[in-house]
Amino acid sequence: MSRRPPQPDLAPGADRSPPADPRPGTNADPLQQQYDLQRRLSAAPIVFGNQVTLLSSGTEAFQAIFKAIGEARDSINMEYFILADVQSDGVQLSSLLHDRLAAGVKLNMIYDAYGSRHTPAAFFDALRKAGAKVLEFNPINPFADRIGWSPNDRDHRKITVVDGRIGLTGGVNLDTAYQNPPSAGIPANGDTSKAYWRDTAIRIEGPAVAELQKLFFGTWREQKAPAAAPADYFPSLPRKGVQTIRIIGSSPGNRSPLYYASLMTAMQAARRRVWLCSGYFIPPHQERQELARIARAGLDVRIVAPAFSDVQSAVYASRSAYGDLLEAGAHIYEMRDAVLHAKLAVVDDTWAVIGSSNLDRRSVVFNNEVDAVVLGHNTAGQVEAVMRHYMQVAREVDLGRWDRRSLPERLREMQARVWQYWM
């Protein structure tokens, strides 16, 4: 009997003992190698048999979320950093949710107190009155807090789970900024709330949806929310496809941040390429060193980063780290026609991630995050295609031009680096 899971995309049913030494340079199958390395990192479940659809824009994500909610028959669970009364194809989220509540569907909702601070309280109050259970994560008001005031710890996740069977996650908030059309570009006055935002999400069907549901209820319990209304939150989930997924939920205080370890392990096992995309690219020193090492080894290292951001100081902090990477041979592309908010990575054609974690310290130290690591050629190919498009519309950073940047630019970078721990 074979001692490796049957080939991909990594179906279950076989002894999963690892090969003796699945490292770069061996003849181990690349996908099998990534699976074995990822499995060794943690006991967190790696789940087989999922169907994954990459949603390559905010518009696509809204359409998929609204469609899933509109078809809900039992329960809707939502957890978002920014949760506003957005619309999709002329339908208002509030109207859709009230319709489902009237039909007897159970609605549980978590919104971050800081991220959703501009959403009128009336939006949430009306849902409560209609029967929804609505939870404010870490209230800014210390007298309203239930678990010990920690205003710097934020819930940066983006999760929708419908009927326990359909899960959606990624970088897309339920924010009105995603209603801006591509033609909006970057307004001349720099108002990013009126700009076009490039972002991604994924829709999952299959057993991995239960892992998103568990994360949601983990936050629900940690925030000491009232009991959710009875519903079939964890139905039996048959196989729907061939993608293999690990859902990683990060939270403040994690001694061993699994997402960071997963990314570093995947990069260290790379054979041809490491492509990263982050709305806030301020990687820790160790990660920058590893990227530079991989680039010097001759692998194809590409990074897509923003030129404009709702936190512009983060752009300057990012640029301050370009030098070593460019000198090592990495390619850096800055998005100039939109606000880049996507959080994507792909290693070779085997390992990909779509989630809420940026490549910055805040995502590791302060935020609740959720990331879907997908092992499989299909999803890796979809992520690669999106990133190729990003590179085509972005501008590559030239080392010579970067070296000749102005003194004011350098001063902004120095100032930003002072505060990068908190970004």
Helix content: 25-40%
> How many helices does DSSP assign?
13
Instruction: Please state the CA-atom Rg, rounded to the nearest Å.
Output: 21 Å
The number of strands is 20
CATH class of the largest domain: Alpha Beta
Number of self-contained structural domains: 2
Termini Cα gap: 51 Å
CATH topology of the largest domain: Endonuclease, Chain A
* Biggest beta-sheet profile: 16 strands, mixed
Mean of pLDDT:
89
Question: Uncertain runs with pLDDT below 50, 5 residues or more?
Answer: 1-25
In short:
The protein is of the alpha/beta class.
Topology, please?
Layout (H helix, E strand, L loop, with lengths): L29 H12 L5 E9 L2 H13 L4 E6 L6 E2 L2 E2 H10 L3 E7 L8 H9 L3 E5 L16 E2 L2 E5 L3 E5 L26 E2 L2 E5 L3 H14 L20 E8 L7 H11 L4 E5 L7 H12 L3 E7 L5 H8 L2 H7 L2 E5 L3 E2 L3 E4 L3 E5 L5 H5 L1 E9 L1 H17 L1 E2 L2 H5 L3 H12 L5
Parallel strand pairs: 2-5, 5-6, 7-19, 10-16, 13-14, 14-15
Antiparallel strand pairs: 1-11, 1-12, 2-8, 3-4, 8-9, 9-11, 12-19, 13-17, 15-20, 17-18, 18-19
Helix pairs in contact: 1-6, 7-9, 8-13
